[in-house]
């Protein structure tokens, strides 16, 4: 494939001082004439390749264009490898594979073991243990639409399960709080929206393209707003549930209460999301204070029990 050959030629030229046309032709099993055409294509792409005639001549990339391998420290290369490897587990594609291969070419042989060891000291796996199996193929489809400025259409379910059909211009993929989203301009709402991939169904990429408009980045940090909305409630929690509870607060919020329980000062907002968190702990968690939250929990539990009594 010509594109792969061009990339490989560029990598060889970056790696060596000078390479002859015949050496390149033998390496890629093509004629020297084809190599000359490839070099012309590379020059047209903006990479300055110089030709030196005669014995010992050949092609070389101008020195001021090359990147010194020593510009990256072991920590730099380890961080780049770690990030690319983690992302490639969830977002697949030739771009990431090629990027990993290129970065590895900057690793000096005498430091390869050290750098690989550092890169493997932290492992990030973004794929879910279980759940919606459409997430990864949807990510790939959104990524393609972003690269090609293509419209996306899909059905979107709100938090109550109500579905609407959306046609959207995609602008950014977002990973926030272990959930994947994409930011786009929704033609139905005539505004930018953040769409959670797990709520999307029947995702399709159309042939229609769009001209990118002025992009409004999504607001992802609600820390200051949440602080003004949060109150503290008191919970009595079984020890067996503390590992899950610590996903929502810290150890400093909890003090032992006997051998099997903790009293936890839990940051709480009175909405469906936080009541669902409390209910998810079942009989391992009891709300002690305030009384109106305790009464609301009792009402919700009774409504749940009524479903099964029926």
TrEMBL record:
GO function term, MF aspect, one: DNA-binding transcription factor activity
Source superkingdom: Bacteria
Entry-linked Gene3D superfamilies: Winged helix-like DNA-binding domain superfamily/Winged helix DNA-binding domain
Keyword flag Oxidoreductase: no
InterPro entries attached to this UniProt entry: CBASS_pafABC_assoc_protein, DeoR_HTH, HTH_11, PafC-like, WCX_dom, WH-like_DNA-bd_sf, WH_DNA-bd_sf, WYL_dom
Residue ranges of domain HTH deoR-type in the record: 2-57
UniProtKB keywords: DNA-binding, Transcription, Transcription regulation
Name listed for the protein in its UniProt record: Predicted DNA-binding transcriptional regulator YafY, contains an HTH and WYL domains
């Amino acid at each position: 494939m010509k594109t792969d050959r061009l990339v490989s030629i560029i990598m060889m030229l970056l790696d060596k001082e000078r390479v002859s046309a015949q050496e390149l032709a033998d390496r890629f099993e093509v004629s020297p004439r084809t190599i000359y055409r490839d070099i012309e294509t590379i020059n047209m792409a903006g990479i300055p390749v110089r030709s030196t005639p005669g014995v010992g001549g050949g092609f070389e990339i101008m020195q001021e264009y090359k990147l010194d391998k020593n510009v990256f420290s072991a920590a730099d290369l380890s961080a780049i490898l770690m990030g690319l490897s983690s992302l490639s587990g969830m977002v697949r594609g030739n771009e990431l594979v090629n990027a990993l291969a290129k970065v590895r070419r900057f690793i000096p042989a005498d430091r390869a073991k050290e750098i690989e060891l550092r890169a493997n000291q932290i492992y990030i796996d973004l794929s879910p243990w279980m759940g919606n199996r459409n997430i990864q193929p949807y990510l790939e489809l959104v990524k393609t639409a972003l690269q090609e400025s293509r419209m996306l259409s899909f059905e979107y379910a709100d938090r109550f399960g109500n579905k609407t059909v959306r046609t959207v211009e995609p602008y950014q993929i977002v990973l926030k709080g272990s959930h994947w989203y994409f930011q786009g301009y929704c033609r139905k709402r005539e505004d930018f929206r953040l769409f959670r991939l797990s709520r999307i169904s029947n995702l399709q990429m159309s042939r229609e393209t769009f001209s990118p408009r002025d992009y409004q980045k999504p607001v992802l940090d609600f820390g200051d707003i949440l602080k003004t909305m949060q109150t503290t409630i008191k919970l009595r929690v079984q020890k067996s549930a503390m590992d899950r509870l610590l996903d929502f607060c810290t150890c400093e919020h909890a003090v032992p209460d006997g051998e099997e329980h903790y009293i936890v000062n839990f940051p709480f907002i009175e909405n469906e999301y936080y009541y669902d968190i409390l209910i998810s702990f079942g009989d391992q968690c009891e709300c002690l204070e305030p009384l109106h939250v305790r009464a609301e929990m009792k009402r919700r539990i009774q409504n749940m029990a009524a479903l099964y009594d029926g």
